Amino acid sequence: MIDTLPAADIGAHYADLSGDLMDMGGFDFLLVYFEYGLVHAIYTETSGMMGMGEIGVFSTPVQRLLAETTYYFRAVADDGTFLHYGGEEIFTTLKPIVVPVSSLPMIGSISVPLVRQPNVM
Questions:
Q1: What is the pLDDT of residue 116?
Q2: Closest by alpha carbon to 8, among 97, 89, 69?
Q3: Residue 103 — φ and ψ, nearest 5°?
Q4: pLDDT tens digit string along 51-94?
Q5: DSSP classification of residue 25
Q6: Residue 34 belongs to what H/E stretch?
Q7: Domains of the chain, with CATH numbers?
Q8: How big is the CA angle at 24 (ends 18 and 29), to the nearest 5 degrees?
Q9: Handedness of CA 69, 72, 78, 81 (dihedral sign)
Q10: What is the rounded distance in angstroms from the CA atom of residue 75 to the CA atom of residue 82?
């Protein structure tokens, strides 16, 4: 009924998850979404749900992921009575890009006067 496709557009803190709804199972409308987590077969997070009235490929972005971390995920179709699951896929988020402050262009300068505080006795 549903297949999990490989993740795409993977960054340090985000990825696009995709699935393929191959059969409506006799239903006019199904909810589809993804379950994902950090451990094989243990899914602690869910993506937003979307409704589908016909077969086809669907995808959704997930954000706020941990950098350099492996995630396990699967597509889910909900017919209102039963949940149908796609196979598990995995992806690893990338290392974040760090730009050193010293490499940023200088836009201007700011001078701050130093004021000596009197000694209080």
A1: 53
A2: 89
A3: -90, -5
A4: 999 999 999 999 999 999 999 999 999 999 999 999 999 999 99
A5: T
A6: strand 30-37
A7: 2-97 (2.60.40.10)
A8: 90
A9: negative
A10: 14
